Amino acid sequence: MKKLNILSIFFALIIGYPSFAQLNFPHASPDAELRQQVGFTEVVVKYSRPGAKGRKIFGNLVPFGELWRTGASDATTIHFSDTVQLNGNSIPKGTYSLFTIPEKEAWTIIINKDTAMHGASNYTKDLDILRFKVKPENTLRFYETFTIEVNDIIKESASIYLAWENTQVKLSLRTNADDKVMAEINERIVKGKEEKPNLYYQASLYYFNNEKDLNTALGWIKTANKKGDEVMYFQLQARIEAALGNYSQAIKSAEASSRLAKEKKLDQVITANQKLIDEWKGKSVMK
To answer: I want to staple 200 with a disulfide (CB 3.0 to 4.6 A). Which of 21, 69, 70, 220 is the partner?
Structure first.
């Protein structure tokens, strides 16, 4: 009877004070969320980050040839706010789960429609929208914690890295920013023929910086100059003319830019123009 009373008191304490029954510890694989703008597209990755903790990862903890949730806990998800190209494959805007099948020589990357899975327990191949292979690489440093990064951002493109231990895979990402810019240029300048000189300058600069048709860019910047003389308009015209090999005209345009810069006391622009003029004079003589 005495033993029964002691047990009753013990269970009463547990029930009456639930905080005694469970301790809170940090999550072994903490959740992470990555947001990155690439072009006009927002990329959002949600995943859990397991640690190596002295274990051999690929080929052991993560077996070769088996489906991996590419993280821990719930399935890793990736969201694209616009249609993108992933390793040259088109993916409509939306949120997807990301799975992989690691191998020594190549990884299979899987993009799946089901985003509500815990790990890979309910994975269905029929819901895949994309599968492709990439070669793994050795990392320059040891990654204790599984890491997903978006780096190498240039204009409308970037690279997505999956890295753990001494291994990483790299996925090329390309957005539709150029398509959107070109569509707006076509709508406002080619079709709409808006009269604002700055629009012609911006369109010309975009063509110049992105190695598009220089003759079209030259036509637009000349239109901008007719509608409103500006220091940077003439400087851009000079740079485009030089790129087309017309150095003598490029020098004249740069000098026009410098005259306007002198009126506005823009000494830095004058210095920059003079460097260009000196460079083009040498090329003009050689030509």
So the answer is: 220
